[in-house]
Amino acid sequence: MKKIIQLSAVLLVLLTLGSCKKYLDIEPVGRVIPKTVADYRALMTSAYSGFPQHKSLLALRTDEVILDEYGFDYSSLRDIARWNDSNPDAVTADFQYNAFYKTIFYANEVIANIESAAGKNAETDQMKGEAYLLRAYSHFELLNLYAKPYNKATASTDRGIALSLKLDLEQNYSLSTIEEVYTQVLADIAEGQKFLNVTTFEAGKNYRFTKVAALAFAARVYEYRGEWASSLAAAQQALALNSTLEDLNTAGAIIPANYLSKESVMNLERTNNPTVSNSSYISDHLLGIYNQANDLRFPLYFSKSGGDYVSLKGESIALKVSFRTGELYLIQSEAALQSGNTPLALQSLLDLKAKRLKPAYFATERARISALGSAALLQEIIAERERELALEGHRWYDLRRYGQPSITHNVGGEDFTLQQNDPRYTLRFPKSAIANNPNLQ
Fold first, then answer.
1. CA distances from 38 to 15, 123, 127 (A)
2. Are 80 and 92 in contact (CB under 8 A)?
3. Contact, 322 vs 258, CB < 8 A?
4. Could you give the CA distance from residue 185 to residue 164 in angstroms, rounded to a whole number?
5. Which residue, among 170, 39, 204, has the nearest Cα to 109 in the 3D structure?
6. What gap in Å lies between CA 109 and CA 249, rounded to an integer?
7. Taking the complete model, does pTM exceed 0.90, yes or no?
8. What pLDDT, in 10s, does the model give residues 142-180?
């Protein structure tokens, strides 16, 4: 009988690390069982480095980019761009479903065994906290890829994803509900925060979870759930620890998504990799929401290529981002408005825009935005999220949260349409995963 969630990656980890004591009660010759602080840090580094780079592919499903049919990777990307999930070409790039569970497996090893193997001290506490957060983040991403958007009224019965919480390959991994997965994600965040003792890591190590990153993650989770008071509180706590923004009006300012940026909180993911950025153009829709002459982000984010624009966010390995203060200002703004605190919502939005726009244009924008009513201000915040966070992996999730609108892509000279509230706003589980786990059907 096939093991449920019989991931080849997980089996590889088992064989090479021998970390599941149920199967190996002695250390096999030539294999390494983590024992020391250094061993477990290496294990966590592997967990981070294997985290999927799926968000670049998600951009192809949004209204941010259009696929270049002459691009080198066109054949592997076209079915993603036309939302052909039911019968994609065999060469179609995948969203690395198995890799999420490999990362979770590493995290579970650290959670289960680090203290007994390497002792309890500040370093092992920090790594255990990171493991809880990384497990939570992996489940959170899986949920927002393969389950419907959160709906409080139906979340307790809506199908979610399989939770993996212990080192047991024989466990029957059935699907949890969306509410059950979110409950576990929030529990892992809270448990991880008990162990974290590093507020921020220096550049080069800032791909790791920290106290600030945990708060930023919690703010995003509550935002997706529409729990505005909790989202606002977490965002404010994070900003109390780091509220710095790149001032694009200042000489020497760098693109905020750079891991060296002043507003870096956590830079794990390459959200716009060359495979996609070299095979796509920026959509007219995205280009049209910027004041191209006065928004200082425009020349940092995009470059002219012939008669089209391409992304500059995929050019450098330094452009990695998972959480940053620019997003926190926008979460604070959205959550404050939804909680009835319009002055804070307005001020947070304007504080961000002041660092992104030329001064004269900002003065005009400040007057315009200050006169908006609540409904119009919410739409302005959503539009600013699209401008600020372009090609950083947020747009697909925001489209799911706000109305799941109709989108049309022209691929290979033919129009394809994602209808409003289309079921394809939720990805299908990969066929290989279903074959190994019939519970996913």
1. 20, 10, 11
2. yes
3. no
4. 11
5. 39
6. 46
7. yes
8. 999 999 999 999 999 999 999 999 987 666 789 999 999
